[in-house]
What does this fold into?
Amino acid sequence: MPRSVNAVAARARRKKTMKLAKGYFGRRKNVWTVSKNAVEKGLSYAYRDRRVKKRSFRSLWIQRINAGARQYDMSYSEFIGKVNAKGIELNRKVLADLAMNNPEAFKAVVDAVK
It folds into this structure.
């Protein structure tokens, strides 16, 4: 009996990976074995960095709140401690946005916790 190969499915699978490799440099974009490895690596980085993005945004918010709080002679930790003690339920994302784009509202929050 002749050997049966499902070339249609194999080609479709390769096409899917090659499509993901579009825009890569050199052989990564058009050589199957190289592009397969590059795409696998890229997808694993994408998975990891979706989580890292959350960390880096939180870090950015903390820096912005710290800069805003220091204008009113408070450190970040002191400010956040007082916000939590007063029961003000504004998260870091909102506080950072206030500190950047709405300084009057941020000053009102600082006055409320002092």
About this structure: Residues 27 and 33 are 9 Å apart (CA to CA). The chain has five helices and no strands. The chain has one domain: 8-113.
